[in-house]
Structures are given as structure tokens and as C-alpha cells.
# Entry
Amino acid sequence: MDIELRHIHKHFGPVHANNDINVRFNHGRIVGILGENGAGKSTLMKILSGFQPADEGEILIDDQIIDYTGPTAAIANGIGMLQQDPLDVGAFTVLENFIYGGAEGITLKRAQAEADLKQLTARFGFELDPHQPIDNLLIAQRQQLEIIRLLALGVETLILDEPTTGISAEQKDILFNALRRLAHDEGLVVLLVSHKLEDVIDLCDEVVVLRAGELIGEMDMPASDERLTAERIAETKRQLVTMMFGEELEAQSRPQFEIGQAVLVADQLVVHDLRLDMQPISMTARAGEVIGLAGLGGSGQELFMRACARLQRVTSGALSYKGQNILNASYQQLFRRGCVFGADGRLEEGLIAGLTLTEHTALVTDDRLQIDWNAVAKLTASRIERYRVKGRASDNIEQLSGGNQQRVLIGLLPDDPKLLILEQPTRGLDVDSARWIWTQLLERCQQGAAIIFNSSDLEELVTYSDRIFVFYAGRIHEVPDVSGTSIDELGHMIGGEFMSKQAQI
# Structure
């Protein structure tokens, strides 16, 4: 199957998200789709996979114009998309999701479905228990299930959106080997949307770069035998960054700040969770310090962070903030004292879909009972300019790209917090946006705030953390020498391979 997009246009109000895009994807190739936040790459992939209609343009499959509406129709035409958060049902088992998501649905016999499932998992080296509830799976396993479900439906063009977020180095290797086999051995088209340039260079045969809704160019990736050369990788990254942003970005370095007194102290803290056996955790976060939490999704770091913000129950142990016991405090009480929690789900917990940027500003004003809308409008305009938000004060928050939503979130933070607890602060952001976010966060750190954050981006953890704690199956280990730990070593650590250089707390 070969795919061609001709003269694709898509508008969202005044924003021209896709502006006359013409591109061809040939079978047997893995193509990276790159661009900064708001460049139009996700919109283009949603159009191709049927999740959004184009305003103008044509989609051709094997040189034939095909007109379809909706993801089900796209799959029927051989095009399927693996979302960043797989579309499965948590209460169902692996087998039930496989059956109900299939073309034959409930008419497929369970015995035959289980045989098909086992055959597909064995074919790609996946490890999936058909009778395991989805809620018990790691994100990598949920991705594997979605891939084999799409393959069972006959998909010949597979689109993946940030598939390496929250998975270990070993899981990424399994995924990439499967994708290489699908493309190079079986002739599928594989399209990878990612901000991780190392992944793109490692996996892709070529890349397509979008900027401000337009197709900037295409570029072949180094041959596989060249990819091991550090100099070749660095040069390729520079070329890609220049294509994405129109200029080469300066190397990012983390300034060091004076470390002050303890802001948050956890002493043998045991977080309550029915599914994960959380072990006692001891950790101190000090003013001016950045603490990074690494681990696969569901390893306990999210539970610990929410417990520190008093959003998760604690079974035993001690927890203090600025010298005072907070085990019986609420998050609202902590917020008034300078502790701010930033949730990973921007539109689920951080922002409110349906509200404008101005209305979000009003929600964090001191007096929400008597709102001075003129003052709020001026403050909103100021923040849009200061935080370089690509959007208008009257726009609903869900109309903005993920990167611009994150800029709004950072703009809503207090100017002088004492503790920032942040889940995935740059998830899904391009290189430039992620650096900009950290510039803002480090300004708060320089003013005396402590930062605790988790991230699936191992380079981000190594770059910005003074200390790193690795979570694995409810246990915690500290990396004793952050500056001497490579990204590859950290990737193996989060998979449970704790090296001799680590000491268990």
C-alpha cells in the first residue's frame, strides 16, 4: 500500500493548521513526522486516520482517490492509528479488548480469538496474558495489544503518536524491532509522530518536517550502519532541528543554584494503593533543588507525588512541608502556602475544556467572588505575550495545541511558589517548547522553590535534575551520581536493572 496526500488544507478558526500539504508515503518505509508544537503534524495524521476531516484535498491509496469518514472507515481502507493513550477498556481483559475491538466483534469465538491473539503476540515477541485485565498492564503492553488489534483488522498503514513515552529501553527495543519487521519485511507503511529525535534517527528511514502548517521538506535518515556514530547522530539532529525551527538551537545547560533549607520531608512514607505494594520512601526536597523521578508508568512515582500534594492516601510514615506535619492537610491548604501540583492530564485535571484563556486567568485570581474582568483581561493579555502563547484570550483552551496549553498552565502558576510537584511537565512538547518551559521553571527554582518532577524523557531527567530517584514496582532507588549516569544506563534502571553504582534507600 502506498499513500499520497494532495493539497490538504485544514483550518481551526483563523489558524491554518495544514496549508496545501502534498506528501507521499511508500510501502516498506518507516517515516518520521516532525515539527514543533502547532506545526500541524498531529492534525495531518488525524486527517489520514479519519479522526478529523480535511477542509480541502485528496487522499490516494495506491494511486486511487479514496473518500472515507471516521476512524472505522479509515481502518476498513487499511489505515490505523495508535494513539498516545491507547483506546482500550480498562475493566476488560486483554482478550476481551482484542475481541470487541475486532472486525467480527462478539461473533468471534473466544477460543479462535485467543489462538489468533497468541499467534500475533508470538510473531512479534510481545508478552501478553490474554486473561490479564487492561488496568494491570504497563503502557508498553497496552501499545502492543493495540498494534496487534490493528494488524488483525488488516491495517497496512500504521500511525504511531509518541509511542516511546513511558516505556523502558528494553520495551522500546521490542517495539522498534516489531515496527522494522512490519515495514521492511512485510511491506507496511509505518508513520512515527515523535519529538524524540534520537528515536526518529534510530528507527526511521526518512522524515517529513512541517512548520507552521506547511511542509518544509523531507530528509533521508542515516543508513543503519552509520547510526552508531555519535558524530553522525549529532549532525543529523542539528539538521532536523534547523528544519523544524528555521535555526539551530543553542546547547542547553542547567544552571546550579544555592541549595537552601528543607521544603518537603518524607520519612518512611508508605503510600496507600490496592494494586501496588508501595515500600517506605524517604526523601528530602530543599529550596533551589530539582529532584527527578524516573520509572515506568505505574511504578509508584505518580502515587508518591500525589501523596506529597495530599491528593493520595498515606498508610504510614511522616510527611512535613516547611517544618509542619501535613498528613492531615488538604491540597487546598498546601496551595495557599505555596505548594503547587501540576497534573499530567492537561485537559483532565490541569485545565478546563470549554473555558477561555481569560476565564482560566479569572479562576486563579485572589478574589473569585468579585472579579474585575478588565483587570483579568489585561493580565491575560500580559501572560499571552510573556509566555508566547499562540492563541487569543477568547479562545477555548482545547483549541490550543498541547505545547500552548502547557504554556498557559505555566502562566497560571504563582510567581513565588515554594514547592512545585509536576507530572510530565514537557510531555509531548517539541525541543524548543520544552526548553522554554524549563527556563520558566528554573526561574522559580532560582527564587528558592524546590521542584519535584517525573518524566518519561530520560534526557530531560539527566539534564535538569540535581538528584534522580528511580521507581520500580513500588520500590525506590537513588542514582548516586547523576552527572556520571548515561541515558542508556538510566533506561536500564527503570526496567529494574539496578546497577552496582546504585544504593537502595
